[in-house]
Amino acid sequence: MDYSSEDDFDNYIQERINVQRRISTRKVIRDFQNPFDYYSANEFKSRYRFSKDIVLNILLPLINADLLKVTSRGLPVPPIYQLLVALRFYSSGSFQIITGDLIKVSQPTVSRIVKRVSYLFCLKMQRFVKFSSNLETIKEQFYSIGSFPGIIGAIDGTHIPIQNPGGSYAEVFRNRKKYFSINVQIVCGPDLQIYDIVADRPGSVHDNRIFQASTLKRKMEQGIIDGILLGDSGYGCQKYLLTPVLQPETVSEENYNKAHIKTRNTVERTIGVWKRIFPCLSKKLATNLTTTCHIIVATSVLYNICRSHGIVEEIDDIGYTTTTRQNIRNTQAYNREGLLFRRLFITRHF
């Protein structure tokens, strides 16, 4: 190549140097620290909550095809790294910028990854979060816990803290404990599996109101799901949802309350273990409301996968919580038919 002057040659050399500098600063796949090679089996599991085999052979196939459809422009983050970024966020609850630093991606990229992966796991909810097809076995397993017959699930609500969502309806998300939250309804089984979840109600909405508007209530009323749920005294007593007796006066009512407390404790343990496995649920989620709801449901899907593969963390000393007497009086006055059924149920079984 001919150059008319020495200055032209110098300019050409400088331009090539600049191009090489730009190329060297671009992030490619080999720049990432490969967690599968870098961490031991125990270290990997403690950081991502799943073993390497489960991540590669179970979780990744669930969302891999959809992640590949997103974009192929530039240097996209491979699906396996997107999955690991989301799992690390769920299992640590740390700031997204810290999660991104682990594989050298920016905070906005982490935000998009968490949003995308959470949505894809939400699409798998009907496959992994559902009642057992063999309810008779579930009733037997619950009976072995506290000798309470006919039970197919325990129900309760839990608050997932969020940042102030802003806007004219922000105060709707402030709960009775004065912080912003999503009130999540959980129904669990005797093995602490999550059977049903409602994760889109503001923190100010009462547990009983969430249940009254739920699909689960309609299915139980129509007999699609046959059995009885156990709930605390914040719920209205129904034929298919039994609550504790406020002031037991007989030995039968005391025995009923003891069996109720012992059996319903499964849902409190479930919520505790769920939040222990995924600490992001115990910290203020700073994502937008839609993504926040997707994160909650996605972690419930992952939690059930954890339990089905024996990945659990037990929590001790989770106490039984009671509601105020005023709340109980209100629900009792509103559900006389349910209270009559409860009285006959106690007479027959306790």
UniProtKB/TrEMBL annotation:
Protein name: DDE Tnp4 domain-containing protein
Keywords: Hydrolase, Metal-binding, Nuclease, Nucleus
InterPro entries reported for this sequence: HARBI1-like (IPR045249), HARBI1_dom (IPR027806)
Record organism: Parnassius mnemosyne
Any GO MF annotation of the entry: metal ion binding
Family from the record: Belongs to the HARBI1 family.
Domain of life: Eukaryota
Cofactor: a divalent metal cation
Annotated compartments: Nucleus
GO cellular component: nucleus
Keyword Nuclease: yes
